[in-house]
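Render this sequence as a predicted structure.
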Amino acid sequence: MATLDSLQFEMERRVILFKPTTTMPDLSQLGYNADPNGASSSGTDGEQLIYYSPNNTRYANYDASGNTITEWWKKAQPNGWLPLGGDSSTSIYGTDSSTWQLDMGNSGVILKSDGSTNLVIKDADGNDGTLIVGALKIDNLTGYLKAKDGSIYVDSSISGSLTYAGILPGDDVTSEFNVIHNLETDNHLLSVYDNNNAIIYPEIIIGNASDNIEFVTPIPNSVNYRIVIMGF
């Protein structure tokens, strides 16, 4: 006859395995069939079951034919799942996985595929996260980061370009302007453009933090001249 102690022993040694077809208390199926690291605490009942499951729980997700794609092992709370299954060429530690869990005391971030070619960031609870970069280093290259066609790369040919753009408002009275640019360099050029983007040549005296611009006559009322400064 089974005793309470023997039943407790059997329960503790049993491995919990969830799968999309697991029967829920309301007799529906668990339903969730994806990377368990993406399960949300505010999702379906099946997602919540996966999210709140204890460490050492197993979970298997299926393909369209009902075959196991990957079996997962829950290492850490709340969504610290690692893949266990795969063919002989894959690692049991998930180096081939499309999802990466950065633990950081069980409250880190999840990096995962959005199902296409994009990488998305999730908080440890599965909700959308934010990436804040304090310092960024790319190999030993020195230059400026440039974006083109969806890619970011370092352009070492650009050496510390400094820029400033501003407006000189006309009022029929003012003919002299002091422009504060705070570039902290005398090595710069200043250009002035009228409303038709034609270059104007006023008297210009450049400075380390500000430039003085003087016109022969005041700028007409309701007319704005545009200035562009470039330096190094």
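Summary. DSSP finds two helices and 16 strands in the chain. Confidence is low (pLDDT under 50) at residues 86-97.
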